[in-house]
Amino acid sequence: MTGRVSFVGAGPGAADLITVRGAKRIAEADVVLWAPSVIEVECVREHARADAELVDFSRVTDAEVVEVYRRASAGRLKVVRLHAGDPSLWGGLRDQQDACQRLGLTTDVVPGVSQVSAAAASVGRELTTSDVAQSLLLVGPDTAEHVEEFAAHGTTMAISASGSRAGLLVERLRAGGYADDTPVVVAYKVSLPDETVAQTTVGELEACVKEHKLYRTTLFLVGKVLAQPAPRRRVPVVEGDEPVRRPRASKWAARANRPVVKSTGDSASAAAWSAVHDWQETARTKRSAPARPKPEPVGEPLLELVVDVPATASTGTSTGTSVEASAEQDAKPKPKPVVAAAAKRKPTTVQASTTPRKPSGTRTKKNKRVN
Questions:
Q1: Alpha helix (H) residue ranges in 274-349
Q2: What's the whole-model pTM score?
Q3: What is the pLDDT of residue 209?
Q4: What is the model's pLDDT at position 6?
Q5: DSSP helix, strand, coil percent of the chain (3-state; round to 5)
Q6: 138 near 116, Cβ under 8 Å?
Q7: Helices H / strands E in the chain, number of each
Q8: Where are the extended beta strands (E) located within 75-223?
Q9: Cα(92)–Cα(69) distance, rounded to whole angstroms?
Q10: Which stretches are tagged as biased composition: Polar residues (predicted)?
Q11: CATH architecture of 117-226
Q12: 332 phi and psi angles, rounded to 5 deg
């Protein structure tokens, strides 16, 4: 058995947006590498064991992180490195996997909810539609200088860039063909208690960023698909129309409408962990479930053969003799089957004749009458 390093997507930041598999990896970990500036503290403390080592990798160098991997290889430890959002997006995943493989460590990746998805969900919009935009372009901080080239496609863009360079971003968006009235969603620390999510346009983007004092890396969603939907016209109800029939209640609807037992914890997201509480405790204490005893083999069941003999059966015409014979039969033990097939036979009923026989005599052979 070798050590294992799991790269877990912690989601956009909220503790209850981590996946169940990601929470399980944290509960099993001996060492957890994370950055409290982008991941909520509750997300780690709620799942990690009490004796787990917590390392803030934003305050250590890359060499010190590799040293943690080396200790995991030597001590066969389980390490979790948390990534904000999804590990496959701007997380430097490949370099870390290469370092772990050189040390002989087993690695696995647990996906997470990306910040792009969380920002779109916060404003209730979809990023791709069949009539406006059918594709999505992801632009990271290192490729922000190519925004003008990407903007020429005229589709939805998700740009992760520094807020302090919002003015330069606006110029490149205009040069790429985006009009000033193109909708823009500005998201910073989305899903966290101190999140900033604002809806603006390309022409007012720079002023919006300055108003909210966003100077660090911020997510910008740009595209016509983010426009406010037109309000739907309500159709007036005409008297005499047939009322809408309500569906009949089913057993599934009854189960769904059961009252929810609220959690007594202080955390707002404590109810999210109740569903996985059992396996969390098992992973923390490292207890193995006791093996269930195997059932002993049971022999073949005994069959009883019941012979149904009426109490009135007798060989004579006397009533007393019939009662005595019945009493003797009741006193005798019932026979046990010797062959299993005998149980399938129907009980035999013996009935004595009550008509007296004629006295036996010599029968004379009748001769034919001769005329």
A1: 277-285, 319-331
A2: 0.61
A3: 94
A4: 95
A5: 35, 15, 50
A6: yes
A7: 11, 10
A8: 78-83, 106-110, 136-139, 156-162, 183-188, 196-201, 217-222
A9: 16
A10: 348-357
A11: 2-Layer Sandwich (3.30)
A12: -75, 140
Do the beta carbons of residue 79 and residue 3 sit within 8 Å? yes
Dmax (CA) for the chain in angstroms is 149
CA distance 30 to 79: 6
pLDDT at residue 312 in the model = 43
- Non-local CB neighbours of 145 within 8 Å, separated by 6+ positions: 172
Contact 84, 39 (CB under 8 A): yes
pLDDT score for 52 = 92
Tokens 């992801």 found at: 138
pLDDT value, residue 92: 82
Pair of tokens at residue 317: 């015409």
Locate all alpha helices (DSSP H) within 201-331, ordered by sequence.
205-211, 251-256, 277-285, 319-331
Give the tens place of pLDDT for each residue, 24-55.
999 999 999 998 888 888 888 888 998 999 99
Q: What pLDDT, on the 0 to 100 scale, is given for residue 329?
A: 53
Domain ranges of the chain: 4-113, 117-226
In which residue ranges of the chain is pLDDT below 70?
A: 1, 230-371
Q: How far apart are CA 105 and CA 3, in angstroms?
A: 5
Which two three-digit tokens encode residue 11?
A: 């989601």
Query: Is 4-113 CATH 3.40.1010.10?
Result: yes
> How many Å apart are CA 352 and CA 315, to the nearest integer?
6
> How many angstroms separate the Cα of 318 from the Cα of each of 64, 257, 359?
110, 76, 19
Token pair for residue 173?
Answer: 């968006």
**How far from chain centre, in Å, is Cα 18?**
12
pLDDT of residue 233: 65
DSSP annotation of 240 reads T
State which H helix or E strand residue 347 sits in: none
Please report, to the nearest 10 degrees, the dihedral formed by the alpha carbons of residues 207, 218, 57, 68 taken in order: -160
* Residues 74, 96: Cα–Cα separation, whole Å: 18
Closest CA to 109 of 95, 121, 123, 93: 93
> What is the reported pLDDT for 186?
96
Each residue of 206-235: pLDDT tens digit? Answer: 999 999 999 998 999 999 988 877 666 666
